Structure formats: C-alpha cells, structure tokens
Amino acid sequence: MNQLKKILFALAVTVSLGLVGASSAYAQLTCSSTAGNPIVRSEGIAELVGTITFSCSEPGGSPATAATSLTITLLPGTAGITNSTATPPTISIDNSAGAAGAIAGNTVTFAIPAFVACAAVAPAVCLHTLIVGINPSSAFPATTIGMRVNIFSSGITFPGAVRELTTTPNNGVITITTSQLDVATPLPGIAAVTFTAGTAFPQCSSALLPATL
C-alpha cells in the first residue's frame, strides 16, 4: 500500500510539473476592454452597435503567445447579430486589416493568431490592441466592419442596454479583466435620430391630437 501511495504521489508531481511547463511555454496576455454605447433605434433590425477595444499587455522578455480565439456574446440572447455572410464583423489586431469573425446567432468568434515573442523586442512590456468593429486607424480601414444587431427582437427598451460578454478558451492565453460592457442603448426611431444627430424633430403627443382625423 505504501509503495502504491509513493507511485501515485510521484505521478501527481510529474503531471503538475508538466502542466506548469506547458502553461509557461507561452506568454499570457492580460486585456482590459472599453466599448462605445451608441443610441440605436429600438425598432431596428440591423443597428450598428459600439466598437469594442481590448488593450492588452504581454510581459517583457516572454516567449511567443499561442494562437487562440475570442468570442463576443450579445445579451440578451434574443439580440441576434444580423451582418450578412458577405460582411461579417471583423477584428483588427494592432491596426491590421480586419479579419472576419464567425457568426452563430447572438455570438461571433474571432481567431487570434500567435504574437511574436516579446523577448525578441525586449521592452519592459509589449502592448497589443484588438478592435472588434470599425477601426479608422487600421492599415485598411475599409476592411473593418462593425456588428449589426436586431435590436427589435432583443426586447430591450430605454434605459436598458444591449450588453456584450467576452469569453476566451480556458487555455490561459488571454485574460479579460472587464468582460461585460454596454454596446447599444435603444430608443424609439425619431428620438434616436434626435439624440445622435442633435436635430430637434417635433414629437407627436396624443394629448394634442384632434379627436378625429
């Protein structure tokens, strides 16, 4: 029995050391996020929601990162992403051209390629920027495309907001410190134009309408 315990303990130590070695073989990115929260039409079925920006840091002197993925889920689940298959939302990495995401209902998933070893650049910290949506700073801004969402089907009304939840695979490559953000606030159509364009459109009031039309 004691011999068996020794063998099991040795195996546990070996596995633990293997896992530590595997996790330290690649650099880890720590990312905080911000997002635009535009006023959109509550009746809209293809409203452009806010751009999401991830500011990431990689420890200096670290090895390369592993390739991974990043998934944006819109909440509530009825807020479906309505981009056409020809113009899906994109992610721009370090102001590169936009790379298309894969849409599935209210989610879109982006492939994140491996970053070069920060040790090769040798600063104190390597910084990376990931932008989901329109990125005018991209090398090819016309290739960056925002998320369009069916706000009407979401059922969200003012002062509520459509939110995004960012998740990554459980492989330790990326840690998101702010994973939920508001990306759109619905208002009835004319009011939405009033708030975004600043034009004072007259609003009909039932109290001022004649009894018959």
Molecular structure report:
It is built from four helices and 14 strands. The protein has 213 residues and is an alpha+beta fold. It has one domain: Immunoglobulin-like. It is elongated, with a radius of gyration of 23 Å.
Attribute tags:
213 residues, alpha+beta, Immunoglobulin-like, six-stranded mixed beta sheet, 4 helices, 33% strand, disordered C terminus
Outline:
The chain has helices at 2-24, 118-121, 151-154, 189-197, and strands at residues 29-35, 39-41, 47-48, 52-59, 68-75, 90-93, 99-100, 102-104, 107-112, 125-132, 148-149, 162-167, 174-176, 180-187. It is of the alpha+beta class and 213 residues long.
Mean pLDDT: 80
CATH classification, class level: Mainly Beta
Overall geometric form: elongated
* Number of distinct helices: 4
How is the biggest beta sheet arranged?
6 strands, mixed
Number of strands: 14
Provide the fold topology:
Elements: H1 2-24, E1 29-35, E2 39-41, E3 47-48, E4 52-59, E5 68-75, E6 90-93, E7 99-100, E8 102-104, E9 107-112, H2 118-121, E10 125-132, E11 148-149, H3 151-154, E12 162-167, E13 174-176, E14 180-187, H4 189-197
Parallel strand pairs: 1-13, 2-14
Antiparallel strand pairs: 1-4, 3-11, 4-10, 5-9, 5-12, 6-7, 6-10, 8-9, 12-14
